[in-house]
Known about the structure:
Elements: H1 4-34, H2 42-82, H3 84-87, H4 96-110, H5 116-123, H6 130-141, H7 156-179, E1 188-195, E2 198-204, H8 207-227
Antiparallel strand pairs: 1-2
Amino acid sequence: MFELIKKIQAIIDAYHANSEQMKKEIKRIVEEWGKQVNTYAMDYIQEQIRNEVAAVKSSNAKINKVYNQKLKVILDKAKKQVLPELFNKASKPSDYATKVNNALQFLMIEAEQITDDKAYMILKDFIDDYNQMKLFKNVIGKRVDLIDPNGNSTYPKTFGKLNKVEMVMNTFDEMESIANMLFIYPREDGQTFIMNGQSYSVPIDSYEQMADEDNIIGFAQIIEEYAKTIPGIGQVTDQTEHETVEG
């Protein structure tokens, strides 16, 4: 089923569990080597702590990169489920270009007098062609206002579907922008463990990481609401649903 929020939240939760495990490992390393002060020289102990802590942080960073890549895959698949018409290109009739030119001529004739009803009659055969409708919208938008003073569309019949698709595309663009850095933001120093005057800090999330976790879930809610209007999307099988986040 289409459960975008659930899938993204699962990765976020796994990311935090991984961070918590890193914290426990760093604490364990410092404490266990701290018990060896009467067995090894302090320089040796501190070198071992540094090496083991560095290895833990490196392993944590590698796993977080995997989470980042999994998030991008989820968004890509979700976009193709929600907007299949943009990716499953239907074949066009041989006279399609002629119909487009004829429609443009009719729009030019109507010019500033074009209404929503007239525009719809001229363009109804192209409603499902996202890219072509963007071009038509640009043509009409040069002659009339497509938005009223309250921010509402003045051509809901003609461009209602296009406006929704553009909203969804903009939302996915925002999510993909977030996904470029989520889980791999540079971290800050958090809790510090002290051993003979040497400190070993646990990396913690930056403000950007925490804010973007909330932001991407908020955008996912918008996408899920839109997805509810798409017939049959709830029955779409996502082959990644039964994979573990860590896999």
